[in-house]
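Changelog excerpt

This revision adds worked examples to the README so contributors can see how folded entries look when concatenated. The first example is reproduced verbatim below.
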Amino acid sequence: MSTLMLDAEALYLELLKGVRALLKPDTRLVGITSGGAWLAERLQADLQLPGKPGVISSAMHRDDFSKRGMVSGGGGQTALAFDVNGADIILLDDVLYTGRTIRAVVNELFDFGRPAAVKLAVLVDRGSRELPIHPDFAAARVALPTTQKLELARSDAGAFSFNVEG
């Protein structure tokens, strides 16, 4: 059995480069709770973008809401301090897997208005999509057994790491 070793800080630097390449003058960052929101917060500062990044939750639009409820998988509140109508948005997530979370947050985003464009940037794309969703940028692509769970963790000092379960 091999151990997956991913350097979250090194991947963050790759994500920073990728997001910088996707930026337009008025692009808004929106992070999916919680890992994507952490990434958006740090990217906002490192890219010296004005204001605060948006935070978006998948909870209300999940197709498995009856099983997961509000607590599991992004139960935080959506907070978008800008007009979504006509906005150029980069949606950020830590780990892209089935695509169901992305589908849910895009539905949530459209509850707030109609953006001009939405691009997706992720730290890790682990494949095995169940929906036709593809990132515009992925810092890494890894293959994991379906029994394993990969999630981003953040220390009190703000350093990123990964938790692998299963």
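The second example, added in the same revision:
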Amino acid sequence: MVAIYRDEGPNGEESETLVSLGNATPQKTRQLVLPLEAQGETLGAERSVEALLATHDNGRLGTGLMELVCERRNLQAALKRVRKNKGSAGIDGMTVDELGPHLKTHWPMLREQLLTGRYQPSLVRRHAIPKSDGGVRELGIPTVLDRFIQQAILQVLSPCFDMSFSEYSYGFRPGRRAHDAVVQAQRYVQQGRRIVVDVDLEKFFDRVNHDVLMGRLANRIKDKRLLGLIRRYLQAGMMADGVVMRREEGTPQGGPLSPLLANILLDEVDKELEKRGHSFVRYADDLNIYVRSKRAGERVMEALRGLYAKLKLRINESKSAVARATERKFLGFSFWVAPGREVKRRVAPQALSRFKDRVREITRRVVGQSLAHVCERLRVYMVGWKGYFRLADTPRVFADIDGWIRHRLRALQLKQWKRGTTIYRELRARGLSSSAARQVAANGRRWWRNSSMKINVALPNKLFEGMGLPRLAP
């Protein structure tokens, strides 16, 4: 069965296309539109969702998916998302603000290329960022136009695939967060599964095999134009310092489509773990399986090596382990057993160490910057950090960190006053007693020791709060 599909581009031009509707039902339509709306996106017209659900007896999606990608309301939602995400320009230098005017001029040609399968993605721009372990993570930054097209594809494919993903897969899925994965892991440990099989894949996004991934996509997608476009995105070369590097494997981090493709590939392992009855959580390429003994954990680890080998992926043996759950970290958190045997969450030592290193960098006393400016920089960093780690059950640790940060700020202020006479005058003006001010001023350049000599009267906590410094402790 076919239907006439009418569409409008960004300029309001209208076209008609025949689209196969397959065996879609109103019940399936209602079920599938919900995950997309949960992301704040919408395909808009019910006819689009019905076409999206078009399946044949083998469960493959129909041939009209590219028409859905190019549907006007889907494009409007994609443009809105790309603008909201912002991000830097690709190799062509086009910014997010320039995308709208570009589409108004060139969309008819771009649409024709997409619907005929002739669109060629641009090269991605290589961008390296340092990792916490001292290594480097390579990002591939697509052009703004390609991010827009990938987002439009994502909005069509995500609800189709998301419904079939494992309940215990949490990364880059609508309505799911890293906190949900951490809480589920905590439940497993509380249930007595105190051994974790902590799996780290070796350069996962750089090692994704294109043929294996495309095979998984072809099992579900019938539209060859869309399959061809996804493969061209996978194979798009990377430009670094004016040199073009071909890509034979991997999916570049930095594009909207990459997380979905990763979930599609790794879902096969999730399904096998479910089939074997394992207790696990996965967030992107971070996988933890919880068992009751180390021997069972070793057997699971060996089985995983074989499962990943079928996908042409390798486990990073140096970063993976079978160990006590309280000795490993997961998504920045670790677990500890409180009196009464209750399992609780805390910030993992590695994450806490990185936090302190960043605070030290911001509050360095060799840099000439005002106290207000330092507090503003701390605020920007700490608000996001606090929002993520609010899940930790360690208020006393947070209170200690709050005190340590204020200690550093007081030392910074004393350093900026420099001379003893200035220190004495400023402290007296802020209400410190003459003897205490004289004692602090007499210690010269011992900024850290001076800042702990009860000068909180002159530099109280409310001073820093007034400059926007947040508290970590509740």
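Reviewer comment on example two: Residues 113 and 119 are 5 Å apart (CA to CA). DSSP finds 19 helices and twelve strands in the chain.
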